[in-house]
Amino acid sequence: MRVSILILILLGSIIGACAQIPFGYSTKSKKAIKLFEKGRNAPSEFLDQSNGRPNYEAGIKIIKQAISKAPEFWEAQLLLGEFYEYSLDYPSAIKQYEIALEINPNHSASGATFCYLANLNLALGNYDESIKYCDRFIKNPNASKRLSSQVYLMKRSAEFARYSIANPKDFNPINLGPEINTERPEYYPALTVDGETLLFTRLLKVKNIDFNEQEDFFVSNKNSTGSWSPSFPMPRNINTSNNEGAPTLSADGRSLVFVACADQTGSYGPNRKGGGSCDLFYAKKIGRTWYGPINLPGYVNSANWESQPSLSADGKTLYFVRGIKGDRTNNSDIYVSQLQGDGIWGKPLRLPDHVNTTNTEESVHIHPDGRTLYFASKGHPGMGGSDLFVTRKQANGEWSIPENLGYPINTKYDENSLMVSAEGEIAYFASDREGGFGDLDIYSFVLPTESRAIRTLYFDGFVYDKQTTQPLPGRFELYDRSNGEQIITSEADEATGKFMVPLPLDRDYVISVSLRRLPSLFFEL
Question: The domain containing residue 487 runs over which residues?
Fold first, then answer.
C-alpha cells in the first residue's frame, strides 16, 4: 500500500514483455560456452540470502568471465545486459545491449533488443535515444506484433516528455512542515471539504516477530493561524497492529473508507473479516467517537484485491482500484460503485477503456465537485513510469480523454497519491525529493489552471430543536434549480446535529431539510 517512488521498478511489466531468450551460440570457445551456461543459471542457484530473490550479481560475475574468453560472444553480451537490467543498473544494461547490436546487428529478428533499449532510455529520461530505438523497431518488417503496442506507447511517451520538458508548467511544491512530516514516510493525504482536517498514512517502525514496519493513520487540524497542528494517531479501533492505508474521507470528515490487507496468517486485524487479499473497510464518526470499522457492506470487495478508495463529497459514490489477486503491481483498473438506499454498496462498474488501459491505473481521487477525477497511470503517454492524469465527467455522463498534468509535476519517476482541495487550486502529494524531513513527505502546490476542478465551497451549521435546543439528525437534499436534479444528499451528525455540505459553484441550488432519524445499520451505539 505504500507509495513507491523507487526508480521505475514497476516498469517490469514492459521490460518483461520485451524479454528474449537467445538460441544457439556464436562462439566455438568451449570455455566461454561453459561459463555462459553456468552464469545463466547462477541467479536462481545462488539466491540472495537477504531476501531470497535471484542473485543477478552472481550471474554478472560469471558472464563477464565468459566474455573475457570470447569478446565476440554476442549472446553473452546480451545476457549480461539483461542481468544488469534486472539489477536496475540501466546505464550498464544499455551499454551491453548496444555492444550486442554492434557485434551482430541482425541478432534480434523480432526487434526485442530495440524494445529493451527504447524502454531503458525512456526510464532514464533519454527521450531522443528512446525514440530512435522505437523507430528502429517499427521499421523492422519482422517486428513482434506482441510488442508493437508497447513500443508505440513508448514512442508517444518519449515524444510527449520531450515536448513537456520544453514547455514546463509552473510548479513550486511546499513541504507541509514538521507537524505533518517526520523522518518516517508520510503519504496518501485525505482532506475534508473545508480544508481544516488532514488524514494521512505514516509508516512506523515496530518490533514484531514477522515485520519491522507498520502503516497507521494520523490526523492534523488547522489552528486559528491557518497552520497545521501536530499530528496525532487515529484511535486504536482504527489503527491496529496490522497495516491500515490509503484512506478517504467524506466531505464532512465523518465517513472513512480505507484498505486493510491480510497478513501471513490471513488476519485483517482485530475484529475484522475479509474475503480477498486486500479489502476495503468502513468506519463512521458520530460525535467524537469513531465506530467500526466493518468490511464494506455490499459488492465492492471480491476475491481479488481492492485498494485506494476515494469517496465522493456526499459519501454516496465510491471510486477504487481493483487488481488481480496476488499481483499488486500490474493490470489494476479503476472501478466505481453507488451506495444503495439500504446502505449496501452496489455492483462496481469498470471505468471505460479510454480511462483504464491494459497497464496499471491507481491512486484515484474524485474531487468534491463530483465530476473531476485524478488518477495515476502507466498506460497513457507520459514522462515514463507512473504519471498523474485528470479526466472529467461530461453532461452526458461520459468521461473525457485523460489529460497528463505535465512536467515537472510528472517526471521520469513514479508520481501518484494526488489529492486536490475543494477550491480546486491547491493539490497535495507525497514525494521523497531532496530537502524534506526524511523519505516520503507530503507537499502542497498550486495546480495549473487547466488541470483544476470546479471550485467547490461548502456551507455548514447545525440542526436543533427550537424549544429544547437539543441537536437533531437533519437530512439534506440539494437540487439543481434549473432542472430539479438531485445533486447531494447528506445527514447531520446524530449526536451533535452538525453538518457540512459541499457546493460546486457552477449551479444554482435549492435545499430541502427534513427531520429523519435513520437507524445506524452497522454499528452498535
Answer: 456-515
